[in-house]
From TrEMBL:
InterPro entries: ANF_lig-bd_rcpt (IPR001828), ANP_Clearance_Receptor (IPR052612), ANPR/GUC (IPR001170), Peripla_BP_I (IPR028082)
Protein's UniProt name: Atrial natriuretic peptide receptor 2
This protein's encoding gene: NPR2
Coiled coil: none
Signal peptide positions on this chain: 1-20
Taxonomic source organism: Trichonephila inaurata madagascariensis
Recorded GO MF terms: peptide hormone binding; signaling receptor activity
Cell location: Membrane
Family matches, as CDD domains: PBP1_NPR_GC-like
Recorded GO CC terms: membrane
């Protein structure tokens, strides 16, 4: 009797456990995000609606129910609060994955913790990340700095520019890391960084370095100049370049990188500032020598519908009003991170494997190709997206707007011409003047000597021919006279 009673109890407890699992079949995902950020655009108010839309699609598209658990922390990036929220979620809620954080320093600590706990972590940012190998379970859905440096070189190669100069903002983690990577990759791939200069900007965004001197140096050492700095810094440099006569003949090309393509498109930073209208129009003309590189952001009808839905949810559920025409690439990347996670959970489940096993989920997320709202997503073996990039040019010289003219697909290394580039002077600048920057290139000097030598030879030859003709003519004339006297 006692044995039968124990068996009944065990069966009853098993039924309760099974029933409990059936009731709560959701996959718990911790969302780590700043709440109402005072400094950046990657807080829960902006990104949360995109995550919610994706979670809803997971249910209908993949039959995967997500339970989004809040791991928010107030006002600003904080590595301390980020790891605290991540630890609480892991200890108390038995989560299956993390979405976020969006801040690089926060991601550094949470990424290591997630690797230790074998929890997949997906983010739409994380571009500045050292020691990538320590983040075994991390999937980056936007891009990384090395990927962006490769894209810069790809565009340079497209125009047959193998020599270039570089100006970068010093004491800035993003730009100095970018400069180091670009220099290393360039010199490893038969490019030549002819000269590089750095400048310092104060916390109030005032440039402390002598930009005039920096631009004078660049004028004498490079025709193709990559600028790693913000658009306000670029504006000051282009003003100086105009004064130094670097933008009138089409001999120089300037390239700078912009994170947000919807801000690069229609860029009219030349029109800002306190200068007179006449001076601003001159600066607009100088901007014809400028090219802008940004992440390629699709502007399909589907993307516009998605943007409108994000804006509506932001207003109704997060009390936030979007001012952008369309939401940016990074917001879309967070949305795609959630969808791709659900796709992998569904695939794992259909194969009879355990979708709660972090190792299995992470391995399936790597080397994956996925069609997302932010475009075709290709994740490499490290877990990083191989992004696509756009080159923008001021081909509307009347309004001074920038438009996409060329796209580069990082995964396939292919280019697509979208529109023609307006080159000042009507020609693609050369990365080096024919006779060098000082006009004293020995090859050019030798060429000059050869031309002189050839001119002398031709002149002597003509002179000899004239003398011979003269002698023959005189001889003939003399012979004729003598014959007539006979």
């Amino acid at each position: 009797m006692t044995l039968m009673y124990l068996i009944i109890i065990v069966i009853f407890q098993w039924i309760v456990v099974v029933s409990g699992e059936d009731v709560d079949s959701s996959f718990k995902v911790g969302v780590l995000m700043v709440d109402r950020s005072v400094r950046n655009r990657f807080d829960i108010q902006r990104i949360g609606p995109a995550i919610d839309i994706a979670a809803e699609s997971c249910q209908s598209k993949y039959n995967v129910k997500l339970s989004l658990l809040r791991g928010y922390y107030p006002r600003k990036c904080s590595a301390e609060l980020a790891i605290g929220r991540a630890t609480d979620l892991a200890m108390n809620s038995n989560i299956s994955a993390y979405i976020g954080p969006a801040c690089s320093d926060d991601l550094q600590v949470v990424g290591r913790f997630a690797s230790y706990r074998n929890i997949p972590i997906l983010t739409g940012l994380g571009d500045v990340l050292k020691e990538r190998e320590q983040f075994r379970t991390l999937i980056r859905m936007s891009y990384d700095l090395q990927d962006k440096a490769h894209a810069i070189l790809a565009f340079l190669k497209h125009f047959k520019w193998k020599k270039f100069g570089m100006i970068y903002r010093q004491n800035d983690v993003y730009y100095t890391a970018m400069a180091d990577l670009l220099y290393y990759l360039a010199t490893s791939d038969r490019f030549e960084v002819i000269c590089q200069q750095s400048y310092i900007r104060a916390a109030n965004k005032t440039i402390l370095s002598d930009l005039e001197k920096i631009m004078e140096t660049m004028r004498g050492c490079s025709r193709i100049i990559v600028i790693l700095g913000g658009d306000k810094d670029v504006r000051e440099m282009m003003l100086i370049a105009k004064r130094l006569n670097m933008t009138t003949k089409g001999d120089y090309a300037f390239i700078y990188t912009e994170l947000f393509q919807n801000e690069a498109k229609g860029n009219q930073s030349w029109a800002r500032g306190n200068e007179s209208r006449e001076d601003k129009l001159k600066l607009k003309e100088a901007y014809e020598s400028l090219l802008i590189l940004s992440l390629n952001q699709p502007y399909s009808e589907e993307y516009k519908i998605f943007s409108e839905k994000v804006k509506e949810l932001a207003a109704s559920n997060y009390n936030f009003t979007y001012t952008e025409d369309v939401v940016n690439y990074f917001t879309a990347s967070f949305h795609d991170a959630v969808l791709m996670l659900c796709d992998v959970i569904n695939e794992t489940r259909s194969l009879g494997e355990n979708p709660l096993n972090g190792t299995i989920i992470t391995s399936k997320l790597k080397n994956k190709k996925f069609d997302g709202i932010s475009g075709i997503i290709t994740i490499n073996e490290k877990g990083d997206r191989i992004a696509d990039y756009a080159l923008l040019d001021q081909n509307d010289t009347v309004k001074g707007n920038f438009e996409v003219v060329l796209t580069y697909f990082g995964a396939t290394k292919e280019y697509k011409e979208v529109s023609s580039i307006h080159w000042p002077g009507g020609k693609v600048p050369k990365d080096r003047p024919r006779c060098g920057f000082d006009g004293n290139d020995p090859a050019c000097y030798k060429r000059g000597l050869k031309l002189l030598e050839m001119s002398l030879i031709i002149t002597l030859f003509l002179l000899i021919v004239i003398i011979i003709i003269g002698v023959l003519t005189y001889s003939y004339f003399l012979y004729s006279r003598l014959s007539s006297h006979r």
